[in-house]
UniProtKB/TrEMBL annotation:
<keyword id="KW-0460">Magnesium</keyword>
<keyword id="KW-0520">NAD</keyword>
<dbReference type="Pfam" id="PF00180">
    <property type="entry name" value="Iso_dh"/>
</dbReference>
<dbReference type="InterPro" id="IPR019818">
    <property type="entry name" value="IsoCit/isopropylmalate_DH_CS"/>
</dbReference>
<dbReference type="GO" id="GO:0005737">
    <property type="term" value="C:cytoplasm"/>
</dbReference>
<comment type="subunit">
    <text>Homodimer.</text>
</comment>
<keyword id="KW-0100">Branched-chain amino acid biosynthesis</keyword>
<keyword id="KW-0560">Oxidoreductase</keyword>
<keyword id="KW-0479">Metal-binding</keyword>
<dbReference type="InterPro" id="IPR004429">
    <property type="entry name" value="Isopropylmalate_DH"/>
</dbReference>
<protein>
    <recommendedName>
        <fullName>3-isopropylmalate dehydrogenase</fullName>
        <ecNumber>1.1.1.85</ecNumber>
    </recommendedName>
</protein>
<dbReference type="GO" id="GO:0003862">
    <property type="term" value="F:3-isopropylmalate dehydrogenase activity"/>
</dbReference>
<keyword id="KW-0432">Leucine biosynthesis</keyword>
<keyword id="KW-0028">Amino-acid biosynthesis</keyword>
<keyword id="KW-0963">Cytoplasm</keyword>
<comment type="similarity">
    <text>Belongs to the isocitrate and isopropylmalate dehydrogenases family. LeuB type 1 subfamily.</text>
</comment>
<keyword id="KW-0732">Signal</keyword>
Length: 385
């Protein structure tokens, strides 16, 4: 296959800026490698509320579902923060994940040697860190019911429900183990799982499941089910368990103890942002959101960064690295993914830095989002493979 339909979701804030840079890179890549990405934009987030009255309109869902893959920037902004829940950009993102069945979110935090000093942590702590956070994405307190803010006995009461059923835990445990164990799978996800295999062969076979089983019943079920799945189906994977409070501390204390981590939706949200500071910036962290079958959505871990939107200051590399994950996992184009990832490293070798990864006195050149995108695209066109 050499033509793919890709839906682009530029979203809000810095979203359109980083998407423009990413398109430069993909343009250079397709030209060089002789395949075609038919890219078509769709609405999500605040811009979709403004233009279509819905943070994820049905037309966007239909277009995503009939694509080979989806690339998303980020959503959200102050403008919509006091809207009713169903008219918030974040609700569109959650609707997209749920309606596309994207239950697994892979968030790799790999420290690049060029950026060791961009981390606020000591060099010896972060050097060589390569953690994969596997975050469950369509369950937990994000989607549990009942939920709301009601008046009970004359007081306002806010509540959400942290809930998982065993099938949801089983399937995310399997994805995490596949990332870890290089198990061969067939079916719709074969391509993606071959990519897991790629990842896994470089990983160490250690899986740490993170929960709060000392307090929460839902976490006790999580721990029991993860233990069952791993011991029965993946006897080669070395499984350990950790409470989330300790895990948050251990990630900063000595992150090299971790290989793959698997956890629920909200703990994974928090721990992956934390892990981004090992790498140096949230602007460097890509992710892949995937399901059992159908297109995945490839999205940076960061948000719409309203504090720097429209100023050409955003780091486009998290989105560009997410596009590399798309090439690898959804389009079965591992070589092309390698080109993009190596071009990102090469641009850092050249000393180009957006503000979020620039250190005072590092001798590097401060560039904006546009220049960073152009530089990566240029290298993609010329780099030897
Ligand atoms: P954020 O991730 O947008 O920003 C946090 C900090 O990181 C900010 O200082 C920002 O400038 C910086 N940052 C983030 N991405 C960057 C990049 N690519 N380059 C340089 N700096 C970058 O989180 P927030 O400020 O808590 O949230 C802002 C909005 O984004 C909210 O509406 C929130 O709901 C939304 N959000 C969306 C997503 C998503 O689309 N997946 C993720 C997180 C937050
Ligand atoms: C993320 C974001 C989203 C989440 C929000 C914006 C709904 O923080 O993608 O990490 O919590 O999943
Ligand atoms: Mn988040």
């Amino acid at each position: 296959k050499d033509t793919y339909q890709i839906t682009l979701l530029p979203g809000d804030g810095i979203g359109p800026e980083i998407m423009a840079s990413c398109k430069e890179v993909l343009g250079a890549l397709t030209k060089r490698c002789g395949f075609t990405l038919e890219m078509k934009e769709a609405l999500i987030g605040g811009v979709a509320i403004d233009e279509a009255g819905d943070p994820f309109p049905d037309e966007s869902l239909e277009q995503c579902l009939k694509s080979d893959s989806v690339l998303l920037s980020c959503i959200g902004g102050y403008k919509w923060d006091s809207n009713p829940r169903e008219l918030r950009p974040e609700s569109g993102l959650l609707k997209m994940r749920k309606s596309m069945g994207l239950f697994a979110n892979l968030r790799p935090a790999k420290v690049l040697t060029q950026l060791i000093d961009a981390s606020t942590l000591k060099r010896e702590v972060v050097e060589g860190v390569d953690v994969m956070v596997v975050r469950e994405l369509t369950g937990d307190v994000y989607f549990g019911t009942p939920k709301g803010i009601d008046v009970i006995d004359g007081k306002r009461v806010g509540y959400n429900n942290m809930i998982y059923d065993e099938t949801e835990i089983e399937r995310i445990a399997r994805v995490a183990a596949e990332v870890e164990a290089s198990i061969h799978i067939t079916g719709d996800r074969a391509t993606c799982c071959r990519a897991y295999g790629d990842v896994a062969s470089k990983r160490g076979g250690k899986l740490c499941s993170v929960d709060k089983a000392n307090v929460l019943d839902v976490s006790q079920l999580w721990r029991d089910v993860v233990t069952d799945v791993i011991t029965k189906e993946f006897p080669d994977v070395k499984l350990s368990h950790m409470y989330v409070d300790n895990a948050a501390m251990q990630l900063i204390r000595w992150p090299k103890q971790f290989d793959t981590m698997v956890t629920g939706n909200i703990f994974g949200d928090i721990l992956s942002d934390e892990a981004s500071m090992l790498v140096g910036s949230l602007g460097m962290l890509p992710s892949a959101s995937i399901g059992e079958s159908g297109p995945g959505v490839f999205e940076p871990c960061h948000g719409s960064a309203p504090d720097i939107a429209g100023e050409d200051k955003a780091n486009p590399l998290a989105l560009i690295l997410s596009a590399a994950m798309m090439l690898r996992y959804d389009l079965d184009r591992a070589e092309e993914a390698d080109i993009v990832e190596r071009a990102v490293e090469a641009v850092l070798d050249q000393g180009l830095r957006t503000a979020d990864i620039k250190q005072e006195g590092d001798g590097c050149k401060l560039v904006g989002c546009i220049e960073m995108g152009k530089a990566v695209a240029e290298i993609v066109s010329t780099i030897d493979i």
